[in-house]
Write a structure and sequence with these properties.
The protein is mainly alpha-helical and about 100 residues long. The protein contains 3 helices and no strands.
Length: about 100
């Protein structure tokens, strides 16, 4: 089933783009559609996918991901590019298999 993140789990508050609420969300690679870091309906599926990579439910890791997303993630990325950057950003927090 995967990790499920609720808006209340997030440190930051993100606007909701209701026009895109029911449009397809990130489910994995490949996904070349643009990523909107200012839309809660885009942010949650992407963060869930990154947390799933590490099978992680740690709120501190989620907070680290949000910091990268809000402070360091470049604009004008595809969903796939944003996913790859976030996976790499927290890779040091987990032991290598």
């Amino acid at each position: 089933m995967g990790i499920q993140i609720k808006p209340s789990d997030l440190f930051y508050r993100y606007p909701k783009n209701h026009a895109n609420k029911h449009s397809p969300k990130f489910t994995g690679k490949p996904d070349a559609r643009p990523f909107d870091p200012d839309d809660l309906f885009e942010v949650i599926p992407l963060l869930e996918a990154v947390m799933d990579v590490y099978d992680c439910r740690d709120g501190n890791v989620l907070n680290e991901l949000e910091e990268v997303l809000v402070r360091w993630l470049p604009k004008d990325l595809s969903r796939e590019q944003a996913f790859d950057i976030l996976v790499e950003a927290v890779s040091g927090l987990f032991p290598k298999p």
